[in-house]
Specification:
Largest sheet: 7 strands, antiparallel
Strand content: 25-35%
Family: Belongs to the FKBP-type PPIase family.
Helix content: 10-25%
Number of strands: 14
EC number: 5.2.1.8
Radius of gyration: 24 Å
Shape: elongated
Order of helices and strands: HHEEEEHEHEHEHEEEEHEHEE
Structural class: alpha+beta
Keywords: Isomerase, Rotamase
Domain PPIase FKBP-type: 206-306
GO molecular function: isomerase activity
Number of helices: 8
Distance between the termini: 71 Å
Length: 320
Amino acid sequence: MKKSILFLSAAVGLLATTSCQNFKKGEGGLEYNIVKDAGAEKAQPGDLLSVDMIVTSDRKDSLLQSTYDIGLPQIVNIAPDSIPGLYAGDYNSMFKMLGEGDSAIFRLNLDTMAAKTGQPKPEFADHYAEFKVKVRKHFKKGDLTDSAMYAQVDEYFKAEIETLKQAEEGKLANYIAKNKLEPKKTNSGLQYIVKEEGSGNKPVVGDTVVVNYTGSLVNGTIFDTNDAELAKKENKFNPMRQYEPIRFRVGHDPVIQGWTEGLQLLNKGSKAMLLVPSSIGYGERGGGTIPPYAPLVFDVELVDIVPGPKEAPADSTAVN
């Protein structure tokens, strides 16, 4: 079982232990299991829910989405039933059954969805998609203007991101301790371990480096790799992509500072682990599936170094 799945199952706790039982039948083929009813008011059209959610399909190892990887909740907008394309038992119906503090598991019938919407059935599943949901906060529309409501959401997310910022140092320290690592540390905060020492020169600014790599979060979730077999194993494979070593010119091409610094510490042929804090990674904004203030782990192999162009000598005939 993959590390990310282990992490997620620990995070959802009770949801994971009840996912195969006690389902009730709803309209439109929707199946549901209300794991916890906190007794709060349920969501109404126009409301917003902040939720933690894991989405899988009825196929083996079919993790499609998880807010636990990002470390931030997802905002779900409860749409009015009058919107065209909605039907009883659809995605919107699930969240109208929930309020603040509730948790539940839903199985959305994809055959019904295809029939009701006239859209092709998704290829990622056979019969249903499963949603494990925990509601963090319920934003009630009531008489609020849209701007007032979204101002509440904005303040809420500022606090969530601040929590990630405060937790970053501890996450990286826990990863190092858990894996019994003894990295070297530079002034920038970069930490690194040379697993296999190469030979020859180290790259300098202006050289082009050729690198094999795998990047992951400290919870074990891989977000990028140039290893096609690993990408397939982790359900990250993109058939439109060429899986080959990445090439970039040190100090010239736009890569994160952790890479620019870290690869200059390695000889050609070296294999290493780079532990990159967000200050020299993707910072307070994150990027793609990388959360804000996320420390990153890169396993890299410096395959080759192509010397950069030599500077032209000064023209001794120039007239001052």
